[in-house]
Write a structure and sequence with these properties.
It comes from Aurantiacibacter sediminis. Keywords: Cell cycle, Cell division, GTP-binding, Magnesium, Metal-binding, Nucleotide-binding, Septation. With about 210 residues, the chain is an alpha/beta fold. It has 6 helices and 7 strands, in the order H-E-E-H-E-E-H-E-H-E-H-E-H. The longest helix is centred in the middle third of the chain and has 17 residues. About 40% of the residues are buried. Bound molecules: guanosine-5'-triphosphate and magnesium ion (MG).
């Protein structure tokens, strides 16, 4: 990290460890909060670790519910950061969960896509990818949708503690190479572990930069 990045990271660390409060859960678009603050959305396949990453970034054990049951997060969950509020984090329902009923999947998809495409205060979207699995077709579909809607996103590898360093290096370059082909994706990807805290300082700093755009 450069000196400027270090400064931003320090400020971000202070913010994320300060006030973080659950605001509301929106099962439908009509329940969205007023678009008063910049927002950062976290999306990705079911079980990829969205809720865990939000917990880890904010140093809370369970501010966003994390579970072993895929498909647990079924609404858009909003969290406010800062005193006074500086921005909001949005935990989204996961996609690509094969066992969910077709109707439920269609409902989530619609909710997620409509939100990501049309949400005015949305500053950036995090597309989370499980390090062990790399990019799946459902991720590519999501990335393509974000490209087409011109919604800027960062690709974030999760659960980096679960694989060997050599495998992690391989998946990182592979995903990075593919991200470079997507117009709305950041060329650099983030490698994280909610469990071990890997990559969190850099990601917090990047998020703070994004909300201030
Ligand atoms: N080892 C390890 N496990 C993780 C990490 N992040 C998440 N997990 C585990 O992965 C499982 C799913 O995590 P969640 O955070 O609930 O995933 P999610 O993306 O929010 O899932 P849905 O809300 O169902 O879409 C849980 O059992 C977590 O403990 C990580 O960095 N390392
Ligand atoms: Mg979740």
């Amino acid at each position: 990290m450069t000196e400027e990045e270090e400064k931003l990271a320090e400020e971000a660390r202070r913010l994320f460890s300060g006030r973080v409060e659950f605001l509301l859960s929106a099962p439908q678009l009509k329940f969205l909060p007023e678009p008063d603050y910049p927002e950062i959305a976290f999306c990705g396949r079911s079980n990829v670790g969205k809720s865990s990453l939000i917990n880890a970034l904010t140093g809370r054990k369970a501010i966003a519910r994390a579970s072993v049951t895929p498909g647990r997060t079924q609404e858009l969950n909003f969290f406010e950061v800062g005193e006074p509020t500086q921005f909001r984090l949005v935990d989204m329902p996961g996609y690509g969960f094969a066992k969910a009923p077709v109707k439920v999947v269609a409902k989530w998809k619609n909710l997620v896509k409509t939100f990501l495409r049309g949400r005015v205060p949305l500053k950036r979207t995090m597309v989370l990818i499980d390090s062990r699995h790399g990019l799946k077709d459902s991720d590519r579909e999501m990335m393509k949708m974000l490209d087409e809607a011109a919604v800027g996103y960062r690709v974030v590898l999760t659960k980096a503690d679960k694989i060997k360093a050599s495998a992690l290096e391989a998946v990182t370059s592979k995903v990075e190479a593919e991200a470079r082909k997507h117009v709305a994706a950041f060329p650099q990807i983030h490698v994280t572990s909610a469990e071990k805290g890997m990559g969190l300082d850099e990601l917090r700093a990047a998020l703070l930069r994004d909300v201030r755009l």
